[in-house]
Each structure stands twice: as C-alpha cells, then as structure tokens.
Amino acid sequence: MKNDDFLNGFHVGSLIKKTMIEEGRKVRWLAKKIPCERDNIHKIFDRASIDTALLLTICFALKTDFFAYLSEFYKNMVNETGIINP
C-alpha cells in the first residue's frame, strides 16, 4: 500500500493552502518565511504527504499545528483495539 493510498482523505498540501487563504497570506510570503522558491510552494499544495522537517517549518511560519490535524486523522482511522478502520 502506498502512503497516498493510506492517507486517502488527508491532504496536507490542501490544508496548508486553505490555512494560507484563510489568513490572507500569499505564496511569496510563505516562500520567504520557510525559505524556498515560490514554485515549490505550489508543489507543496499538490502534495498529500510532506517531509516532517518541512512541515514543522511551515507550522512555525503559519503558527498552525498541522501535526494536530494528522493526529486527529489518525485517531479517526483507528478504533479502540488499535486496528485501522476500513
């Protein structure tokens, strides 16, 4: 099973983009904050998964705990016995 298959329903790039839009932030702002090229920010938006160090950097920049969203997704996927729900 590929990571993208497992994470079906959780798309971190879309969540980052949504957060930026809600805060009225521009791509160039995040590119300066993390730092990287603006084109790479657009590539991040397209990703269902992301390197944890990069995600942490984005968390600091946007002052948002994206790991909490992932943790909530995990909790919803696992039942009381620790088995992943189908």
Main attributes?
86 residues; mainly alpha; 434 Repressor (Amino-terminal Domain); 6 helices
Task: Summarize the SSE layout with pairings.
Layout: H1 3-6, H2 12-23, H3 27-33, H4 38-45, H5 52-62, H6 66-77
Helix pairs in contact: 3-4
Can you give me a brief rundown of this structure?
The protein has 86 residues and is an all-alpha fold. It contains six helices and no strands.
Describe the structure.
The protein has 86 residues and is mainly alpha-helical. The protein has six helices and no strands. The protein has helices at 3-6, 12-23, 27-33, 38-45, 52-62, 66-77. It is elongated and about 40 Å long. The two termini are 14 Å apart. Mean pLDDT is 87; it is low at 1-5.
Given as residue ranges, the uncertain stretches (5+ residues, pLDDT < 50) are 1-5
β-strand number = 0
How many structural domains can be distinguished in the coordinates? Answer: 1
CATH architecture: Orthogonal Bundle
User: How many H/I helical runs?
Assistant: 6
H/E element sequence: HHHHHH
Largest sheet: none
Ends apart, CA distance between termini: 14 Å
Helix content: 55-70%
